[in-house]
Structures are given as C-alpha cells and as structure tokens.
Amino acid sequence: MVNRKELDPEKSPSARFGQRLRTLRDERGWTQDELAERMGCSGTHISAVETGRRSPTPHFAASADRVFGTGDRLARQSRAARHTALIEGFPEYVAHEARAAEIRLYEVGVIPGLLQTPEYAATLEADAVRREAITPEQADERVELVANRQTTLVRSPSPLILAVLDEGCIRRPMGNRSVMDAQLARLLEFAERPNTVLQVAPFSMGARRPFSLPVTVLTMPDRSLMSYAESAHRGHLERESTFVLPILTAYHQLQAEALSQAASVAMIEQVRKGIS
C-alpha cells in the first residue's frame, strides 16, 4: 500500500474504531472506495474514520455493521468514540508526549496531569461530573489517562521534564486536606528527580508572566519542536518551527522570572505546613 498510515489504537477511542474498521475491510480485500460504495459514502470519509480524523456517526456505524454483518458491535464501539472525555487534539498530543526527549510545561490554576496524584485527579474530575460537564464514565477515563501518562516519568531513557506552575496551582485547594497534602508531597518528590526541574511562577511576577494560558513545548528525539495549547473545546498541536520557536523563547523568559527550584520547593513546603 502506498502512503498507508499506521494506526495507533491506543491513541483514542476514535483510533480504535478506525483500526477495527480497517481490519474488517482488509479481511475482505476491499479498497476504501469499494467499502464506501457499499456504505453509500465517499472513500475520503472512510479514510478519515479509519485514521481517527473523524468520529463515526451512529448512521455510519450502523451502515458498517450492516455491510460487515457484525450485528451492533461497531455501533456500540462508535458510542465510546463519540462520547470520549478527551478534547479534540489531545490524544494526538499524548502520543507525541510519550516519545518526547524534553517536555516543558506551564500550568495555571491546577496541578498538571503529569504531576497529579490519583486522588487529586479524581477530585478534579468529580467536580466536573457534579457540574454535568462530563459523565462518571468520562471522569474514570480521564483519571486513568493521568496514570498512563505518568509512565513517561519512568521510561528509559528518561525525558527531561521542566515544569513551571503558577502560584495558584499550589494554593488552590482541591479536595480535603489529605488530598492536598499528598499532592504537594508529590510535587516535592518530582523536584527531587534527576531528570526534572520544578519552578513556581509567583503572583508577584504580575505582567512579566509571558503566558496567560497553559502551554507545553515538546522536543522530540530528532530535536524537532512541537507546542500544544488548548481552548475550551479543542487542543492545537503546532509542528511548524516558525511558530514554536517564539513560544520556546517566551518559556525561557518565564523560567528566568520564576522562582528557582530551591525557592519553589521552600514555598511548596510552606504551603503544605499551612494545610496540615
């Protein structure tokens, strides 16, 4: 096959559906256009679903079940793909994060996922369920993803992880005292790792803070750069170095203005004493 894109079923529920669709199509020896003709859509549509770029609609999944004779199996799988708790663009970012040689992140308001304890993550998602922003099942998916992403911290070779947290991240209470105490202890453990740097951007930085929203910059093993940022409903992964380099420069400026790791650890320890 020419330019056949490899699929990663762990990337997202949409990717798992796409892989299943391709497998069923390959077993029958059909091209994308031949399957599209049987389903009453276009080959381009089949390609987009197979590669996870488009989530399967109920009609599409039902049509695929009819063509392949799979009962309602694809229809049930498509519901998971459509109802995923992860915003568009984030699964793709996570796949790159797991391979990155260096991870630079800045977070505002909450502890970032790579540094969260399970209890902190569960408390955060429980509130989203209370607000009916997500379902309990989606909350479980998000908490599970936090644990999966943290394998990044222990893989070999270890990535260099530089984290700058806005002061609000460590001062914003999340759950009861034991949850926050354990979370702050996790931050202190993170700072002790040989492949990490932890800094706090204090409130006193004021307007000198170059970012108003969270941002992440990845350096890949081939030294190429990517940046990732989110809006309320969508994540954007930028690969063009022309746009990533200014973000990296601003990140270096942020680090220069933020507290040193020693001063940051001292602040976290002080906050931790205040909640115990």
Automatic annotation (TrEMBL):
Alphabetical keyword list: DNA-binding
Alphabetical list of PROSITE patterns matching this protein: HTH_CROC1 (PS50943)
Domain HTH cro/C1-type: 21-74
CDD domains: HTH_XRE
Organism (species): Streptomyces natalensis ATCC 27448
One Pfam assignment: HTH_31
UniProt protein name: DNA-binding protein
Top-level taxon of origin: Bacteria
InterPro entries hit by this protein: Cro/C1-type_HTH, DUF5753, Lambda_DNA-bd_dom_sf
SMART domains listed in its UniProt record: HTH_XRE
Alphabetized GO MF terms: DNA binding
